[in-house]
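Can you give me the bound-state structure? Components:
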Amino acid sequence: MTKEALYQQILAKQSYLCVGLDSDQEKIPSRFHSETDPVLAFNKFIIDQTADLCVAYKINTAFYESNGVAGWETMAKTLEYIPQNIYTIADAKRGDIGNTVHQYAKAFFKTLEFDSITVAPYMGKDSISPFLEYPNKWVILLALTSNPSSADFQFLNVDTNQTQLFEQVLKTSQEWTTDEHMMYVVGATQADMLQKIRTIVPDHFLLVPGVGAQGGSLQEVSQYGMNKQVGLLVNSSRGIIFSENPKESARKLQQEMAKYLEDYHKN
Amino acid sequence: MTKEALYQQILAKQSYLCVGLDSDQEKIPSRFHSETDPVLAFNKFIIDQTADLCVAYKINTAFYESNGVAGWETMAKTLEYIPQNIYTIADAKRGDIGNTVHQYAKAFFKTLEFDSITVAPYMGKDSISPFLEYPNKWVILLALTSNPSSADFQFLNVDTNQTQLFEQVLKTSQEWTTDEHMMYVVGATQADMLQKIRTIVPDHFLLVPGVGAQGGSLQEVSQYGMNKQVGLLVNSSRGIIFSENPKESARKLQQEMAKYLEDYHKN
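Here's the bound-state model for the whole set.
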């Protein structure tokens, strides 16, 4: 999917919501347990309930791999069920040497036809490049994550002592490709950093996990993170899929987003 | 597998060789193409040829995921075929928030019964901890990788300007668990750094990729990397599995290793 197509979808739906299909088999409602593939049945239900309210689905590969071969099959069938015009993210956090990354690119962009994959930056440019050879496919690079231990390394000062590692990741990786092929993961629980991040990457889309269960504020994220093509995908996983009424939970976020989009266009 | 069991296996086989099953479907010999599962048949052949000469097998998940559901099945069956007393590594380079890592731990330590998994350090301690809850299972943390772009971030000076990021990863992560549950990936093409690394982590096992196709020197790695419980797993993938005679290629490395083990015990 192109950046323009994603932007148009956001305007049409008045939403920059990404629904995370972290479909833990042990947490899905009991009414799905009797299905042949309970997680697939659950995912179809969630997609039916939310497809009009979100612009992206994020499939966290861990929740499928934990069920082995059967789980990988559930993932493939879930991806097939997602409507063509919705942006899809393999939240796989891969990263390896070039030779190996060619295989991951094939796995997630060809065998499975995701629009994008999340990737860890530690191994540098050549661990990303093979993903960028696919037209209209995206790398979503981990910059600042929302977990408590993100500080272990991401906040280390590098070289001049005035740049933190996550900022250096943003600066260096910008040179690898354009904002038509790369987004960044930016943890919402540190929304005060969004302003700083926007000075480094004004034009890129940011994938913001951690709104909801992880405690981030949608208001802050929207205020500090939005740019002229919106530039945000805000993810909610457990807060939607395991809520009593997934449709209403998604709608609530979408309506809040519609308000921020309106505010933004007023200013 | 315990550290002691691994050490005893190394002494018994006079080998610290790890064979990397990077079994690219497009590169396996044509005589396997007519098999129901060509990659599985190839892997069984490689395991039969090398099981007496190596102490570990490393399965690079990318080469299986690229074939989707069928590939994941090949991986599971390959793992089952590996003799129980040989150490197994899921070279998966995972890493995520705690909630998700519990699922990866289940995927690779329970659904699939690997002894260890490679993990990226970028997200810090809580992205590793769930793996450490499994007794006799191991995290193999990326410290210094062997690809050219490893310099993009791993060589950045952090804080005092006298410690590089990969050294800080070694220092910080040492506090997360013991050398009975953690190893480090250290790229062999930078063997001159092994001496430095051994001052930081004298007791840990190091998994050294990049001997052979990636150009590292086994002699240098052994000279600078060995410790009193050997402390090395040296991996060769393409250099063995796609050679004309995998058994002989593995034996050549094993015999060189036997010599270094003898030298080490003399000194």
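A couple of observations. Residues 3-84+142-266 of chain B form a domain with the TIM Barrel fold (CATH 3.20.20.70). Residues 246-266 of chain B form the longest helix (21 residues).
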